[in-house]
Amino acid sequence: MGNFWLFVVMSILLIILPGPDTGLATQNTIAHGKKGGFQTVFGITTGLVFHTLAAVFGLSAILVKSAVLFSVFKYVGAVYLIYLGLTSIWALKKNKGTEQEEQQSKYKHKSPFRQGLLTNLLNPKVAVFFLTFLPQFLSAGTKPFLQFLLMGATYTVLTILWFILYVSFINYIRTWMKKPSTQRAIQGISGFVLVAFGIKLAFEKAPS
């Protein structure tokens, strides 16, 4: 795989671009601390593992080629993102002016891992990404199976490393971000971002 390092550089650039995963990791780190942020990251990367295996064994190709399946995953994923965003915005409105204990209690029954997993797993754009981005770095003379597996594993590891740094940074400034005014602003922004990404995903066209 002669283009491996180019693949690494391009992957890093794509990973650090803000997206629904970033918004969710930010929100859960503020709400739950570093533990909640890392649980979200573990959910996100678990979703990436499933997408990698799907790409390796050809399931993603079926998803990309089937307009019906693509639409099902697209709308389920979009609804879930919008639900997370609206829940955040509604909680912000409902808990305006409450004490910190009440602010934390609304997250008590939520699973950051499950949120991260479903946000990533139900996003068909990730499947499309694996089937369109990874093949550009395939080398002749080597089995695509092994190359896909290596690139998928590399992308997952890079994602983990980036989000460890990102969550650690958010947790470091969490004291400032936990101030009621700052937290309301961040929670509101992340909620609207998740809704926006959900709407954007809903209007995503299936690849031709």
From TrEMBL:
InterPro entries membership: LeuE-type
Keyword list, A-Z: Cell membrane, Membrane, Transmembrane, Transmembrane helix
Residue ranges crossing the lipid bilayer per the database entry: 41-63, 75-92, 145-173
Stored PANTHER family: ARGININE EXPORTER PROTEIN ARGO (PTHR30086), ARGININE EXPORTER PROTEIN ARGO-RELATED (PTHR30086:SF20)
Topology relative to the membrane: Multi-pass membrane protein
GO MF, one example: amino acid transmembrane transporter activity
Organism superkingdom: Bacteria
Keyword Nucleus: no
Protein's UniProt keywords contain Cell membrane: yes
Record's subcellular location: Cell membrane
Coiled-coil residue windows: none
Name of the protein in its database record: LysE family translocator
Record's GO cellular component terms: plasma membrane
Phylogenetic classification of the source organism: Bacteria, Bacillati, Bacillota, Bacilli, Bacillales
